[in-house]
Amino acid sequence: MKKNWLLTLSGSLLAAMLVTGCAADDEDPAPPEDTTENDTVEENVEEGVNEGGDAVEEGMNEGKDAVEEGAEEGENMLEEGAEETDQMMEEGNVDDNNKDKNE
């Protein structure tokens, strides 16, 4: 019978210690919210939208510049290729002429 009372009391004591330990709140309470923050939030959203629009516009301009530079580079490469082809054709003709003369 003594064991039964001992188990009951120790169980109750353990339960009481758990409840009081878990209920203890060591954290400081959150500071009260200011109502003026709503105005600044709206202003921040507007600024974010404006900055985002500027970034998109800047990105489009950079993309357009990159395309133009790529097109110019492509044209230059095409011209260089055409010149090299002409030179090769001339050299080929000269070689063919030399073969005809040697035969």
What attributes does this structure have?
elongated; mainly alpha
- Main sheet makeup: none
- Structural class by SSE content: mainly alpha
- Give me the Rg, rounded: 43 Å
Strand content: under 5%
pLDDT averaged residue by residue: 78
Distance between the termini: 131 Å
Encode the helix/strand succession as letters: HH
The number of helical elements comes to 2
Low-confidence stretches: none
Number of E strands: 0
* Gross morphology: elongated
Helix content: over 70%
Question: How would you sum up this structure, described in words?
Answer:
The model has no long low-confidence stretch (mean pLDDT 78). The longest helix is centred in the C-terminal third of the chain and has 66 residues, at 37-102. The protein starts with a helix and ends with a helix. It contains 2 helices and no strands. It has a domain at 48-91. It is mainly α and 103 residues long.
Note the topology.
Elements: H1 2-23, H2 37-102
Quick overview of this protein structure:
With 103 residues, the protein is mainly α. Helices cover 85% and strands 0% of the residues. It has a domain at 48-91.
